[in-house]
Amino acid sequence: MKTETIEILCCPVCRGDLVLTAFKTMETEGKTTDIITGVLRCDACGINYPIAEGIPNLLPQEKKLDQ
Fold first, then answer.
1. Is the alpha carbon torsion for 50, 56, 58, 59 positive or negative?
2. What is the structure's pLDDT at 63?
3. Which of 7, 30, 35, 42 has the most beta carbons within 10 angstroms of its beta carbon?
4. Are 12 and 38 spatial neighbours (Cβ–Cβ below 8 Å)?
5. What domain range includes position 35?
6. Phi, psi for residue 25 in degrees, rounded to 5
7. Alpha-carbon distance 36 to 33, whole Å?
8. Strands 33-42 and 55-56
9. Left (φ > 0), alpha (ψ -120 to 50) or beta: where does 54 sit?
10. What is the number of domains present in the chain?
């Protein structure tokens, strides 16, 4: 996932802003940064959306009480 993509994404549940936490990144030849693994979090509704192998999983998931 390209870091610039975060600007156009929103929470699919409440349409709130998503906050990116990157765990593993990679710089491309074009001097941009790709997120390999990480989490997109909606602070408005408290749901985490994982990023695995560069692909964000934005399917709504059940909210857990411990999040």
1. negative
2. 54
3. 35
4. no
5. 3-56
6. -125, 165
7. 9
8. unpaired
9. left
10. 1
Is residue 41 within 8 A of residue 47, CB to CB? The reply is yes
Query: Structure pTM?
Result: 0.80
**Amino acid type, 19:** V
Has residue 28 been placed in a domain?
Answer: yes
Q: What pLDDT is attached to residue 6?
A: 87
DSSP state of 66: T
Token digits of residue 45: 């509704």
Q: What distance in Å separates the CA atoms of residue 16 and residue 28, rounded to the nearest whole number? A: 29
In a domain, 61, yes or no: no
Length of the chain: 67
Residue 62 lies in a domain: no
- Lookup: tokens for 32: 């941009």
pLDDT of residue 36: 95
